[in-house]
Specification:
Arc Repressor Mutant, subunit A, 5 helices, mainly alpha, about 100 residues, elongated
């Protein structure tokens, strides 16, 4: 895997919290930051996918793909996020073909 170096500026208080949490978890700052970024990225992807699905601009299977979740896991997220299932026979047939 190819990596790149990124930098950002944080408030001193945020940096202190990151260092404190890293120490409590037995991680170095960089390892914790990688975890936080991955979790945050995953959550934002999922939120965006659910929002687009809620608005009806994408299908449930496309939302799952964007969120990098299985269709089952996406279905399980719907009630947690108060999103209604918008699924018709055409969409079921399309998903079964895939």
């Amino acid at each position: 895997m190819t990596t790149v170096t990124l930098s950002t500026r944080l408030a001193k208080e945020d940096a202190r919290k990151i260092d404190e949490l890293a120490a409590n978890l037995g991680l170095d700052r960089g390892a914790l930051l990688k975890q936080l970024i991955r979790k945050g990225l995953k959550e934002i992807q999922t939120e965006r996918a659910l929002d687009a699905y809620r608005r009806g601009t994408i299908t449930l299977s496309r939302a799952a793909e964007i969120a990098e979740l299985t269709l089952r896991d996406m279905l399980l997220r719907l009630p947690e996020e108060s999103v209604e299932l918008n699924y018709d026979v055409r969409e079921l047939q399309r998903d079964l073909e895939v």
